[in-house]
Specification:
Blueprint: H1 4-7, E1 17-24, H2 31-39, E2 57-62, E3 66-72, H3 82-97, E4 100-104, H4 113-129, E5 133-137, H5 145-158, E6 163-166, H6 175-184, H7 203-216, E7 228-236, E8 246-255, H8 258-265, H9 270-287, E9 290-299, H10 307-312
Parallel strand pairs: 1-3, 1-4, 4-5, 5-6, 8-9
Antiparallel strand pairs: 2-3, 7-8
Helix pairs in contact: 7-9
């Protein structure tokens, strides 16, 4: 997706709009994939596993007419652990700070109790702050036109929305329309970030997220909730030629039980090597430099329920 600087336009003039938006929805509603599609680059990790997103990742789209700072939030859900409660708190705090919210409802799934719960939360927000909410029918490519029409009617009956837009982040269909609608609800404002900035997340946070994304591939359903990643160190290798730098990245992957550690490592360390290879490729693309990735798997028992360990792991 081409930004304003690439087109030669001068953003920030009279009538320019800029502000913060967030995508909200139940787990696995397509929020992170849509965030990446709108920004045009990978700024949020994606996975078929629920509760993939744990941080509020900001992706920035700049055009000639507006700048949207899009916050990808964890899925709002009924929590079963202290971690789950804190993730919900992150979502609610984010909603209080944005100018527009996008409510993602996947077209390949019927509207259920989780969607109704979120719709009530958003109605309360609208009454308290008059924040416009755009309903977004995600994953529209996975259903036929009749099912999509049925889904859009159900969305309309679920609440009072500023707009309703179907899209497919996978194919790109109407992604630009979603971005345009969200931008139309932003306040008049000069740019908040310079041209070319796609995210304001620190490199170590992005690196940790990319390792976690790689580790989530192909694991059992219960493991994603127990998986946390912390970057311990990122340092340039000394003595390297100026034209061939190397970055040493030391990362700890935390799980809650010894059996989970065995799953991540795999037979003879085979699975951990696959995780390292996949993550290193993504990290090198992100940072633009060769990386030596040093992965360690550690057990932090019941960390999701332990306030002290949650703080240590960044929650």
């Amino acid at each position: 997706m081409m930004n304003a600087a690439a087109r030669g336009d001068r953003p920030g003039g009279e009538g320019y709009r800029a502000g913060f938006g967030c995508l909200i929805g139940r787990p696995n509603a397509g929020k992170s994939t849509l965030t990446n599609a709108i920004v045009g680059e990978k700024v949020a990790i994606t996975s078929s596993k629920p509760q993939t997103t744990r941080h509020t990742i900001r992706g920035i789209l700049t055009t000639a007419h507006a700048q949207l700072v899009l916050v990808d939030t964890p899925g709002l859900h009924r929590p079963r652990t202290l971690l789950g409660e804190r993730l919900n708190d992150v979502v609610r705090q984010t909603l209080m700070d944005v100018d527009v919210a996008g409510f993602c409802l996947p077209a390949d799934q019927r509207i259920g109790p989780g969607d109704t719960f979120i719709a009530r939360e958003l109605a309360d927000l609208n009454r308290a702050r008059r924040t416009p909410v755009v309903a977004i029918a995600t994953k529209a490519d996975l259903v036929d036109k009749a099912r999509l029409a049925e889904h859009l009617i159900a969305i309309d009956q679920l609440g009072d929305w500023a707009d309703i837009v179907p899209c497919s982040a996978a194919t790109g269909e109407q992604v630009a329309d979603v971005a345009g609608v969200l931008m139309s609800h932003l306040p008049l404002s000069p740019q908040l970030y310079p041209d070319g900035v796609l995210t304001d997340e620190p490199d170590d946070v992005m690196v940790a997220e990319l390792v976690r994304e790689a580790a989530l591939e192909g694991v059992r359903d219960e493991l994603p909730h127990s998986l946390a990643v912390v970057v311990e160190e990122m340092t340039a290798r000394e003595g390297r030629p100026a034209d061939s730098p190397l970055l040493d990245v030391r990362v700890n992957v935390y799980v809650e039980r010894d059996s989970q550690k065995a799953i991540i490592i795999g037979r003879g360390g085979s699975r951990l090597r696959e995780v390292g290879t996949r993550a290193r490729r993504e990290i090198e693309a992100l940072l633009g430099v060769r990386v030596f990735l040093d992965l360690h798997v550690k057990v932090a028992r019941e960390w999701q329920r332990d306030p002290r360990q949650l703080r240590k792991l960044g929650f």
